[in-house]
Amino acid sequence: WLSYAAVAPDTADVVSAILVRELERLHKELVPPEELALAKSRLRGSLILGLESNAHRAMRLGNAALSERTILSPDAILEQVAAVDAEAVSAAVDRYRKPGNANLITVGPSR
Questions:
Q1: CA distance 20 to 11
Q2: Burial of 31 by CB count in 10 Å (0-12 exposed, 13-18 middle, 19+ buried)?
Q3: Widest CA span of the chain, in angstroms?
Q4: What distance in Å separates the CA atoms of residue 85 and residue 32, rounded to the nearest whole number?
Q5: pTM (2 decimals)?
Q6: Which residues, in sequence order, are CB contacts of 81 under 8 Å at separation 6+?
Q7: Could you report how far apart the first and last alpha carbons of the chain are, in Å?
Q8: What pLDDT is stored for residue 37 in this prediction?
Q9: pLDDT at 111
Q10: Quick one: which of 22, 41, 35 has its CA closest to 81?
Q11: d(CA 104, CA 101)
């Protein structure tokens, strides 16, 4: 599971705080249906558009192989995305928001 933000160095702390706040919100309440539908639509679109690029397909397969995950077909991934509900999001947030299960990486100029 991954959250990613590309921001200017002077806004990195603010954006990190927003991400943490959103995780806390999703820990306390279920993701609203419209927000979940929008996220799932974005994931489907990203996957489908990514299939048009050899580089993206190679990166997807390479990432799966490096992390020792099963390489799934695009149709299988789309089925998994469709099956995600608010309770599954809540369970993922609860699992990864624990300090021992989370990592924060900042890439950029040192301060």
A1: 14
A2: buried
A3: 44
A4: 10
A5: 0.73
A6: 40, 43, 44, 47
A7: 28
A8: 97
A9: 62
A10: 41
A11: 10
Report how far Cα 18 is from the mean position of its chain's Cα atoms: 15
Which one-letter DSSP state was computed for residue 69? -
Confidence at residue 1, expressed as pLDDT on a 0 to 100 scale: 67
Specify the length of the chain in residues: 111
pLDDT at 108 over 70: yes
> Using the 8-state DSSP alphabet, how is residue 108 labeled?
S
Residue type, 51: L
Q: What pLDDT digit, counting tens, does each position of 43-100 carry? A: 999 989 988 889 988 888 898 888 888 888 889 999 999 999 999 999 998 888 777 7
Phi, psi of 90 (to 5 degrees): -60, -45
